[in-house]
Amino acid sequence: MVRELTHFIDGQHVSGTSGVFGEVFDPNTGQVQARVPLASADEIEAAIANAAAAQPVWAAFNPQKRARVMMKFLTLVNEEIDSLAALLSAEHGKTIADAKGDIQRGLEVIEFAVGIPHLLKGEYTESAGTGIDVYSMRQPLGVVAGITPFNFPAMIPLWKAGPALACGNAFVLKPSERDPSVPLRLAELFLEAGLPPGVFNVVNGGKEAVDTILRDDRIKAVGFVGSTPIAQYIYETATANGKRAQCFGGAKNHAIVMPDADLDDVADQLIGAGYGSAGERCMAISVAVPVGQETADRLVAKLTERVHKLNVGRSDDPGADFGPLVGRDGVDRVNSYVQIGVDEGAELVVDGRGLVVEGAEDGYFVGASLFDNVTPDMRIYQEEIFGPVVTVVRAGDYEQALRLADEHEYGNGVAIFTRDGDIARDFATRVQVGMVGINVPIPVPIAYYTFGGWKRSGFGDLNQHGPDSIRFYTKTKTVTQRWPAAPAKTNAFVIPTMD
Ligand code: NAD
């Protein structure tokens, strides 16, 4: 049976009225499992109007009360994490264990947001001038929006909404139309946790919905995560319309492997980081850079052995290392990049194309591919494939390896594997990438630090979650006060100074 999905506006499920629908597929079977309404401009505007009406009610909750709503939400999500993970996995195609990780990493930012009474504290300077005190406060922006990708349908909406809501904003989420059921359930749970109706809204849609958000004056900030061309478009359009924007894009994450690294450990880690979630992670390692020919030969041999043992299966198969891609277009894209690599002259050590999973022959499966002797001029090195493909680029020395990561147009994550503290420190200091792992393959920062890529992986000044998120979702007001007991001593016609 094909489920009919809705929007979630003003605390209720609302059927779509545009007459335009997207299809949500079951990646394990290739069958349509749900229809999702794609909102018209009128529908989005109605949601924004609702959010604008609800926001002052929510902003009037004191910070401690807002924190209590977040705490209750944590409890509710944790109580049903198994069924949420199953729902997420069934639409996305990642394994159920990985789907739980997706939810858990989102909840960690809600845990951070529980600290909002402390995080919102302003500054105070007593007697900044004679009888004059100065203080600052952080106030919510109003209505803010999140536009999120398919690959983390719980984590990224929560990264955006958690801090935004805790700061007293109302939120309009436009999730990916490929896997919208988990965001819709999260909206119900926010309501159950005590969030007033209209404060968190989910409106499904495509370009028309997004463009309406970008144009509407009532939306004060836009947080986006997705591919780089759309990130750039959203950043430029939102800021041209006077909004704050933070837009995170694609990636090509390198792992530099020094000759002194424990290569068995490195190979184990790279297999998970490169092929986990079928490579559909913005922090996936897609480029391994062994330093020196001997390191490269040994690493490729160890990776090859492990890639052959990978178990690709249905997302609900507990024995699967990774499941299907989210859609047929993903399979076509990955297959075509593998062919491009072959045509460019890279050495295809393991070919993952044409994989058939027994009993799930129509699913969007593709096996793991491994390329050796990839060079920086090749498209399979330069472009984001977003699938289970790892490319090995051999570097002659450390400086050449560092240059590769530095000169790549993306700068999301990077890792170095070494036992040499001097090299590791030098690398962390000099590399032109936003998130660095030292013997850690997927260095997604913990919730109370910030997450954000450099170069064409991120547009905007402030990162996601951590202290930056509080700055992004609030505006600072600074008050300078004097009471009559301290008479003004200045000439009213001269600009005041703090003498
Ligand atoms: P996408 O860019 O196709 O879609 C992201 C969002 O933008 C969706 O909500 C989609 O509906 C909307 N959208 C798509 N086309 C649009 C258009 N023309 N105009 C306006 N809105 C549009 O990305 P995706 O395929 O859902 O996600 C995968 C991409 O996201 C990869 O490139 C991955 O690297 C990136 N990603 C980046 C991060 C990060 O933090 N840097 C995290 C996760 C994913």
Overview of the structural elements:
Pfam families: Aldedh. The protein is built from 16 helices and 23 strands. With 499 residues, the protein is α/β, with parallel strands linked by helices. The protein folds into two domains: 3-249 and 457-478, 3-Layer(aba) Sandwich (Aldehyde Dehydrogenase, Chain A, domain 1), CATH 3.40.605; 253-438, Aldehyde Dehydrogenase, Chain A, domain 2 (3-Layer(aba) Sandwich), CATH 3.40.309. A seven-stranded mixed β-sheet has the order 15-16-17-14-13-19-20, sandwiched between helices. β16, α13 (379-382) and β17 form a beta-alpha-beta unit. The longest helix has 19 residues, at 41-59. The radius of gyration is 25 Å and the shape is globular. The model has no long low-confidence stretch (mean pLDDT 97). Bound molecules: nicotinamide-adenine-dinucleotide. Nicotinamide-adenine-dinucleotide binds next to α8. The site of nicotinamide-adenine-dinucleotide has 26 residues, from α8.
